[in-house]
Amino acid sequence: MTTVATRNDRHPAGAADEVGTVHGDPVAAFSLPVPAGVPRRLAVGWLLLGLGSLVGAGVFAILLVLSRTPYLDRHFPWIDFFHTALVVHVDLSVLVWFLAFAGVFWSLNPVRRGRSWGWAALAVATAGTLIMAGSPFLGAAQPLMSNYVPVLQDPLFLSGLILFAAGVAIQVALSLCCAQPIGVLASGAGALRFGINTAAIAAAIALLAFALSYLSTPPDLLGRAYFEQLFWGGGHVLQYTHTQLMLVAWLWLAAGGRVRLPLSPRVVLALFAWGLLWVFLTPVAYLAYSPASVQFHRFFLWLMAFGGSLAAVPIALAVLYGVATAAAAPLLGAPQRAALLSSVLLFGVGGILGLLIHGNNVTVPAHYHGCIVAVTLAFMGMTYELLPRLGFRTPTPRAAHWQPYLYGGGELLHIAGLAWAGGYGVSRKVAGAAQGLHGWQENAAMGLMGVGGLVAVAGGILFLVVCFAALHRPRSPAHASGAQPRSPGAPVPDLKAH
Predict the structure, then answer these.
(1) What distance lies between CA 158 and its chain's CA centroid?
(2) Handedness of CA 22, 26, 29, 33 (dihedral sign)
């Protein structure tokens, strides 16, 4: 069964989901109505937190790229600066940005009660983010490049990290207790709600894994080894949250970009269920192995390889088919389609590079940069889709259309340079002379990395400029009255259902 992207006519009174028909069969669009009132304002709050984290990350990203670019790296001789900047950049651009956007999705799956807890979650997470971002300027140092959650071994930074985690934990608990039901009949909207709910379940299990690791990690273990063991299990499980929400974004962006997908809601429900199924194996790892053992580490690598990544393949293929067979989209629908296509391609490249990893070299960051940027591009596209539906102006069409290609293209060059340099054994997580760039090949590869990184930074800055321009423009009378502007391909929401 082939799903239709959208339909402009309303349901009968009281219906919450939009439906269309293909060959006489009713199918639901992969899109959700944006609720009014507190859920919408909470979604805006989480979105602003995510955008603010990208602003902070961008400042450090420019310095990071320059510190690893040949002939420019000599101006950044202090390695401690590189690692401190890298810790803050990664935590803001990945941990905070991804989980803040998860807060957007969870807020749009409206809760029936406990909304004061939603504000508390946002406030606590925001306070934690501000402390983490400001801690280096207040003397926090001792960077430790642990996987998934790098840290500054400083009480101020760690207190900010704990506060942020507490805010996310409150939001996850609220989402699990009070989320909108998916409905009895399989529908596109129900499939998206199910995907959002599975992401909350994965986040809850990730928090449980962090707690189990904390309880089982010897207190006398010091430095990076301690945090590596602390974050390994939960960090892997948290990737399922990001992947499930990326798939939600792909489906929603296909609707916004008028891309018809050869997928039924039932198939999508099954794929989301497959991605979640593997998360429930997490306690097995803690019961069977010590968190310090090689088997424990390999267990989670195996879990990621056969879980969420495989669930993404059918949806990615459906997206590529839908984009290839779609008619030319009007400019207003192009940003969603551009972000969708760029995200799918980067995720595929990142996955392929993961199969080529041999040793601890820069092929490793090439792999995870591809996957991380794929999630970021999906969330960027969702920002363009949601801004007018949250009561703000539609982003500038031409700039919003080209921004995903600029950002995604720059990151493609960035990871290509890293993969090329990885073939020559260039070490990861080092800068300057420590990289060991001896031949012209290594210098050319890292030069390509630097050029691509700077192009990607330009794309990231353009995204923020486009978003903040839309946020700061005066609202139209329709916005002020609470009417929801509709992006092309987006269904007309029924506010009575909420």
Answers:
(1) 22
(2) positive
Residue 402, SS3? Answer: helix
Q: Any residues with CB less than 8 A from the CB of 483 and at least 6 apart, and which?
A: none
**What SS3 class is residue 143?**
strand
Please state, in angstroms and as integers, the Cα–Cα distance from residue 297 to each residue in 28, 229, 412, following that order. 41, 9, 29
Write the burial class of residue 481 (CB in 10 Å: 0-12 exposed, 13-18 middle, 19+ buried): exposed
The answer to whether 487 and 332 are in contact (CB under 8 A) is: yes
What's 94's DSSP letter?
A: I
Buried b (16+ CB within 10 A) or exposed e, 98-121: bbbbbbbbbbbbbbeeebebbebb
Backbone dihedral angles phi then psi of residue 111, each to the nearest 5 degrees: -90, 150
Residue that the structure tokens 């997928």 belong to: 263
- Enter the pTM of the model: 0.83
Give the chain's domains with CATH numbers: 332-498 (1.20.120)
Q: How confident is the model at residue 417 (pLDDT cuts 50, 70, 90)?
A: confident
Instruction: Write down the pLDDT at residue 10.
Output: 34
What are the tokens at 341? 């296509």
Q: Tell me which residue has tokens 């198939």.
A: 267
